[in-house]
Amino acid sequence: MEARRVMLVDDHPMWIEALGEDLVQAGFEIAAVAHDGQECLRRARAARPDVIVMDLRIPEPDGATCIQVLLRDFPETKVLVVSASGEREDVLRAVKAGAKGYLVKSASRAELVEGVCRTAQGDAVFTPGLAGLVLGEFRRMATIAHDPGAEGPQLTPRETDVLRRVAKGMAYREIAVELFVSHRTVQNHVQNVLRKLQLHNRVELTLYALEVGLAEPEDPR
To answer: Beta strands 78-83 and 101-104: pairing type?
Structure first.
């Protein structure tokens, strides 16, 4: 696998050291480490990592806040949350902030390394039980958007076409070429879908598309 630059954020130095060693052996470069929110924001802006492995419960600002701030400035950065908490509120807050996936620290070392590898490749990675929890949050919106008799916003056929392609991981320019429309038109459709469904980012769009059958789940192998 082509090496990718990773930043590790956690307030437990021994955990950072252990995971860092495993990732280096897997072909990654550790671009930066941080132990609190302020250090995370400062070092991430300087290092510009491809992937950030983030704990949520770090000294202020917390992990979810850091994710929001960094992805606003560097939207191409992929964030994988690795936390001791599997609480519903923590998982949903991380996803709404823009995290690509969420693993609990009880996962094996091999599972953690695989999770970082898949995140680097653009996959949405979740500890199995948490994936169902997150998908469940989109069931009400799925019903509203696809049930003609339900009250609420409806997606147009073209918006559905764009959503399906976003969920496959296609870039906006690729979607524009495939649908014979402009890049700006694709952006407008995505913004309309986000607004209608009250979602926040591409990760939530992908999870929503999985829930309503517009995208196939990733092969777990």
So the answer is: parallel
Q: For residue 5, give both structure tokens.
A: 């630059």
Cβ proximity of 99 and 67 under 8 Å: yes
- Preceding amide of 153 cis, omega within 30: no
Instruction: Give SS3 for 89.
Output: helix
- Per-position b or e across 60-70, b if 16+ CB within 10 A of its CB: ebbbbbbbbbb
Closest by Cα among 8, 19, 87, 10 to 50: 8
Domain count for the chain: 2
Could you tell me the CATH number of the domain that includes residue 199?
1.10.10.10
Q: To which residue do tokens 């606003």 refer?
A: 72
98 and 44 in a common domain: yes
Spatial distance between the Cα atoms of 171 and 180, rounded to a whole number of angstroms: 14
Secondary structure (3-state) at 121: coil
Least confident of 6-15, 100-109, 119-128: 119-128
- Whether 216 is covered by a domain: the verdict is no
Are 193 and 202 in contact, with CB atoms under 8 Å apart? no
As a whole number of Å, the CA-based R_g of the chain is 18
- 159-172 pLDDT per residue, tens: 888 988 887 778 88
**C-beta separation of 23 from 113 below 8 A:** yes
Check residue 219 and report its DSSP letter. Answer: P
Specify whether the CB–CB gap between 43 and 32 falls below 8 A. yes
Mean pLDDT of 117-131: 84
Domain that residue 159 falls in = 138-211
